[in-house]
Amino acid sequence: MKRQLLVTAALPYANGHIHLGHLVEYLQTDIWVRFQKFRGHRAIYLCADDTHGTAIMIRARQEGRSEEALIADMREHHVRDFAGFDIEFDNYGSTNSPENRRLCGEIWASLRKAGLVVERDVVQLYDVQAGTFLADRFVKGTCPYCGLINQYGDSCDNGHTYSPADLKDPVSTLSGTTPEVRRAPHLFIELEQLHAFLADWIGADDHLQSEVANYLNGHFLGEPLKDWDVSRPAPYFGFEIPDAPGNFWYVWFDAPIGYMASLAEWCVNFGEKFDQWWPKSAADGKSDGKNNDSREIHHFIGKDIQYFHCLFWPGMLKTAGYRLPTKVHIHGFLTVDGEKMAKSKGTFVRAATYLKHLNPSYLRYYYAAKLGPRLEDLDLNLDEFVTKINSDLVGKVVNLASRTAKFVEVTGLSAKYPDDGGLFAGAAAEAEAIAAAYEACDFNQAMRRIMALADRANAYVDQNAPWQLRKDPTQASRMQDVCSVSLNLFRQLAVYLAPVLPRLAAQTGQLLGRPIAHWDEAQSPLCGTPVAKFEHMLTRVEKTQVTEMIEESKEQAPAAVATTPGMPGATPQTSAPAAENADSGAALAAEPLAAQITIDDFTKVDLRVARVVAAEDVAEAKKLLKLTLSLGGDTQRTVFAGIKEAYKPEQLVGRLVVMVANLAPRQMKFGLSEGMVVATGPGGKEVYLLTPDSGAVPGQRVL
RNA sequence: GGCGACGUAGCUCAGUUGGUUAGAGCAAUGGCUUCAUAAGCCAUGUGUCGGCGGUUCGAAUCCGCCCGUCGCUACCA
Q: Which of residues 544-603 of A touch strand B (CB under 7 A)?
């Protein structure tokens, strides 16, 4: 049966550049779609830039240009990066499009009609000077419960949560002014009304990987679903809600609808009908994805945005009467050499930087060789990357052509396919198993099977030694036969690898005078056709190329920090830690200066030099060390400091630190903390204690 | 602390509806070959399948507990 597949990858946010982490998803999806097309199904690969939201608005302001100019610029970068990796979208749209506005309106209307929308006031801080409401992370102030200063608008570092309106001494990080408390109506979707439906959908028909269904059941469906705040008061870069003037749809509302908008655009461009691809559900309302026709909808996303795609999105589609996704395929994050990508280590590599140093086919193959159907993180091991490309692609696959093609440049392939001991037939018989692996997104299994075939083919060449036959003119036809077998086995591999390595498929078509256009071409050998002059198809990777790429990524780090944590459309690692190794504006940009204070304000904080006289691990705590600090004489303080990941207790004993000595004591699970030590850094392993220069003694005040 | 995933050769991983001596690739070692992008072929080794206990005629595979790693979450910073 010929299937019709609508396939999407998550929409990259227009606030950051594409990097190797994103590419896991776009390549995984590209390979899958190419595979489907190659098998003769109708498939389209849709994507778009995700363009709305506060982060874009603020950044555009900072850069002194319009949001439209900003997103147009980023779009250009994204499109170029994707093309550089042979990622072939059928349509690349934007959430800031008329189609999207229209579809948002339509879906919104059905949510209204279904009685899912409720209005409720939200108390928020308003920056009069900037003329905008402040999201929690744009406000800083003092915790109303514990007096901790410099805290975000929703919760303090001591774990108290509160409304931003309760924050003491609030300051807008946008303007440095004191914001006003304003009340604004927000619109919420009562997702709980769809609870039963969602629980059913999540558990049914293989819509989700089992581990995902499991996670959602455990984390969300066990209790009532919370209302979803989908509106933002002006100003906001997005679409104004037609029946709620002055309010805009929250970016996560219009982002997934962007899939549909991209489809709509594609339909216009190619004269297709929208509802042929994204049909309305049956009249009985059973939009459960298991419709009896051959139309399928597949979303590929990262594990960070499961929540939106597996709860809100099905809920919206269901309510609007659209067909639900056939499957949401969820992948893990990328690590490099076993660790989270880090700008400081140069492992946060932009797509464009990679392309300066390395061939995109390498990454396509490497990811394919590592990707499985499950939600697992994928490790890019740089040494393995080099050996795998060289040994698999160059040593095994391409070598098959390069070691035999030139022997038959003159004669072409044998007129009749020779006896190869069943090798070609055997490899042809693998087609379905390999296809099944691709279909299941088990690319690593597909690659393993293909490489096993490559091994057999190389053994054949070795046993039949065409270079020996060549020396004996009476063996000319035998030699041609052997090379014909070898090249046909090679071509078979190129067919199987075509979804992953489209360039290799094209080159093979060139070499053997016949384009590779369909999966089934692995079923029958070429005979009696000419062979072109062999040209190198893929060069070996040198470790130095990889090293240079990493080095350049280190240098580039400061410029690449613009991404905003946790924003919509986020594919993996858009929320990677900010760079902190260079004197760029990154750290400052990540945390703008607090409002001005007077010297009196400052002297309220009594900072003192203290010596660590004892430090012990708090075994049950993940982050805490228990420090005993001496302020000189008999005065000692116990402080629990969240520096466990960064320091070992024995490293600390004896050293001087700076502590906040007049901080209100705080009862913690493990004891009373009587102050805090001063440190900087983003947290986790990257915490840096402050130390006075030598000469300072405990008890001295820091001013 | 809670939830989840994972833990198989030096490395990356495959393998579980329970069934004979546990696999692949890479790396390593020895040999062969020299057509090929210092490519290829053959041979070889290694594993208490994280640990303990249970179910079973039989467990890497099922169950329980424990340990470790990672993620989310809580507490906390």
A: none
Higher-confidence residue of A573 and A301: namely A301
Q: What is the pLDDT of residue A50?
A: 92
Encoding tokens for residue A518?
């369909």
Q: Name the residues in A675-694 having a C-beta closer than 7 Å to nucleic acid strand B.
A: 676, 683
Q: Is the CB of A671 under 7 A from strand B?
A: no
Confidence band, pLDDT 50/70/90 cuts, at residue A571: very low
Burial class (CB in 10 A: 0-12, 13-18, 19+), A162: middle
The answer on pLDDT for A648 being more than 80 is no
Whether any strand B atom is under 7 angstroms from the Cβ of A471: the reply reads no
Domain segments of chain A as ranges = 1-116+191-332, 117-189, 377-523, 584-689
Residues in CB range of A193: below 8 A, 6 or more apart: A114, A115, A116
Nucleotides of B under 7 A from a protein CB: 1, 3-6, 11-15, 24-27, 33-42, 70-77
Selected from 3.40.1190.10, 3.40.1440.60, 2.40.50.140, 3.30.70.100, the CATH number assigned to the domain covering A584-689 reads 2.40.50.140
Sheet with A168-172: strands ordered across: A151-152, A139-142, A168-172
Residue pLDDT, tens place only, A577-595 = 333 333 445 555 555 566 6
Nucleotide B73's nearest residue (CA vs C1') is A219
Would the pLDDT of A103 be above 90?
Answer: yes
Q: What are phi and psi of A268, to 5 degrees?
A: -65, -45
Q: Nearest-CA residue to the C1' of B14?
A: A445
Q: Quick check: A251 and A52 in contact, CB under 8 A?
A: yes
Residue A151 pLDDT: 66
Condensed to tens digits (0 to 9), the pLDDT of residues A419-468 reads 888 889 888 888 888 898 898 888 888 888 888 888 888 888 888 888 88
CB A581 within 8 A of CB A560: no
Q: Which residues neighbour A356 within 8 Å (Cβ) at sequence distance 6 or greater?
A: A549, A552
Q: Which residues in range 628-647 of chain A are in contact with strand B, contact meaning CB within 7 A of any of its atoms?
A: 640-643
pLDDT of residue A569: 33
**Helix (H, G, I), strand (E, B), or coil: what is residue A445?**
helix
| Cβ–Cβ < 8 Å for A540, A399 | no
Q: Is strand B less than 7 A from the beta carbon of A537?
A: yes
Confidence class of residue A124 from pLDDT cuts 50, 70 and 90?
A: confident
Question: Which nucleotide is nearest to A451 if distance is taken from CA to C1'?
Answer: B25
- How large is the C-alpha radius of gyration of chain A? 30
Place of tokens 């004489």: A633
Which nucleotide is nearest, taking the CA of residue A468 and each C1'? B35
Whether any strand B atom is under 7 angstroms from the Cβ of A427: the reply reads no
Kindly tell me the burial class for residue A555, based on how many C-beta atoms sit within 10 Å of its own C-beta (0-12, 13-18, 19 or more). Answer: exposed
Which residues contact residue A42 at a Cβ distance below 8 angstroms, ignoring those fewer than 6 apart? Answer: A2, A3, A4, A5
What pLDDT, on a 0 to 100 scale, did the predictor assign at position A160? 56
Decide which of 2.170.220.10, 2.60.120.380, 2.40.30.70, 3.40.50.2300 is the CATH code for A117-189: 2.170.220.10
* Phi, then psi, of A316 in degrees rounded to 5: -65, -45
* CATH class (in words) of the domain with range A377-523: mainly alpha
A387 CB contact with strand B at below 7 Å: yes
**Answer CATH for A1-116+191-332 from 3.30.360.10, 3.30.420.40, 3.40.50.620, 3.30.1490.20:** 3.40.50.620
